[in-house]
Amino acid sequence: MENTNREKFGSKIGVVAAAAGSAVGLGNIYRFPIVAGNNGGGAFLLIYLLILLLLGVSLIVAEFIIGRRAAKNAVGSFKKLAPKTAWPAVGFAGVVTAFTIITFYSTVSGWTLDYICRSVFDNIRGDNLETMNANFNALINSSWRPYLCQALFIIMTAVIIILGVQKGIEKGSKIMMPILLVILLILLVRSLTLNGAGEGLAFFLKPDFSKINVDVIISALGQVFFSLSIGMGTMITYGSYISKKDNLVSSAVSICICDTMVAFIAGMIIFPAAMAFGITPTAGPGLVFNTLPMLFGQMHGGYFFCLIFFVLLAIASITSLISLFEVVVAYLVEEHSFRRRNATLLTLIVSIVFGIFVTMSLNEHSTLKICGETLFDCLDMITANYLMIISGMLVVLFVGWKMKKADTIDELSSGGTIRSLFNDLVYFVIKYVAPIAIIIIFVKKILD
Ligand code: PHE
């Protein structure tokens, strides 16, 4: 019964579309420039691309293998493949991580909603940095706007999940994601032709090797995991919907390419524009939410581009939130016999309650701080830079060392129908390269 529900979700939405929808989101357009800005720009980009090439595809494939082999949620998959062991705890950690991400991801998703409303009345575009800053600060310090927007956003996500209009989303995203890409390309041209864009471009593209240290490497690793939605059960859950015939490796490659392209273009837009407008690359959230409205203020047709852009950003963020919800909901349905609707409602209510605290921590008067950092930043850092990476490492160890080699190869070759050198390479990376690389980075961090 529950299985049929899950199967339906999977077959309707189309797994690669769903997985790419999960990967492409605020992580690419909002988080990537901020993390890159805080970690030296070009140096970060270089490390990010290296990690992506080395580990990205293999980690997605490893999660797909677990999910497709077991045809279960993140916890159930480990239970089925390694009964009576502690491995299901890795799946459970994934469910907790997914829930945690929902609480802070929806904060930023809520901001996109606020920016959409204000774009309609055309009161976010402009050319004055002080006004932009004041606008953004007014939003995060308001006593109701960010909470209302966040709650509305989570409710919208839950309604979509309950109504089961995934088909609409799939069709919608096939049209809307290319439009998002076109708008990004238009913004790219505008940004690169601004006076003073060169400095920002150099910051983003020219690696300064002296800036590379273990923290930059961990941030890049965390960003790769966050951006590709790995290390918390999403790709295990989506993997369970993939048909036995599909090629896991080529699906993972497509997802990586889409995801990286969007992040790279976002960086190429934000840094040149930010520098041209006098915004420092380390400005944090304001980097994106102040730079873009100023860029729209400099464009012909800026009103429309601005409105459409924030609508598309909201949509990109909904498809990611859906995938996070799906991890929690599939777990509640399959492991605790919840009905799908009740599981969704429970996740909705609990995430709004926790989410409000997270959003509150960004208010300038808030005392919700841990070691001087806001709750928002702490959760973001702990999930991306630690939980997801550790869980990703356990996933590759599981696939490389705990699962039967014959099963892994069977999944990689889709029942022996796809033979390619790439499969062997991916297997080698999963078994040796990925765990060793991650361990080295962490040991270095501890010794630092
Ligand atoms: N990958 C998404 C993004 O880049 C965020 C996400 C993380 C979604 C983890 C699902 C799981 O926006």
Oligomer: single chain
Strand order of the main beta sheet, please?
1-2
How far the N terminus sits from the C terminus, by CA atoms, comes to 52 Å
Decide which structural class fits the backbone. mainly alpha
Radius of gyration: 21 Å
What overall form do the CA principal axes indicate?
Answer: globular
Estimated share of beta-strand residues: under 5%
Tally of contiguous helical segments: 19
Helical content stands at over 70%
Which stretches are poorly predicted, pLDDT < 50 over at least 5 residues? Answer: 8-13
Number of strands: 2
Secondary structure layout:
Layout: H1 2-13, H2 15-23, H3 26-38, H4 42-70, H5 74-81, H6 88-120, H7 129-141, H8 145-163, H9 166-192, H10 197-205, H11 214-228, H12 234-239, H13 248-276, H14 286-297, H15 302-336, H16 340-360, E1 369-370, E2 373-374, H17 375-402, H18 405-412, H19 421-447
Antiparallel strand pairs: 1-2
Helix pairs in contact: 2-13, 2-15, 3-11, 3-13, 4-5, 4-10, 4-11, 4-13, 4-17, 4-18, 4-19, 5-6, 6-8, 6-15, 6-16, 6-17, 7-14, 8-15, 8-16, 9-13, 9-15, 10-13, 11-17, 11-19, 14-15, 15-16, 17-19
This protein binds phenylalanine.
Phenylalanine binds next to helix 2, helix 3, helix 11 and helix 15.
Report on this model:
By secondary structure, the chain is mainly alpha-helical. It is about 80% helix and about 0% strand. It contains 19 helices and 2 strands. The protein has helices at about 1-15, 15-25, 25-40, 40-70, 75-80, 90-120, 130-140, 145-165, 165-190, 195-205, 215-230, 235-240, 250-275, 285-295, 300-335, 340-360, 375-400, 405-410, 420-445; strands at about 370, 375. Strands 1-2 form a two-stranded antiparallel ribbon. A hairpin with a 2-residue loop joins strand 1 (about 370) and strand 2 (about 375). Helix 4 crosses helix 17 (about 375-400). The longest helix has about 35 residues, at about 300-335. The protein is globular and about 60 Å long. Mean pLDDT is about 90; it is low at about 10-15. Phenylalanine (PHE) binds near residues 25, 227, 229, 320 and 324.
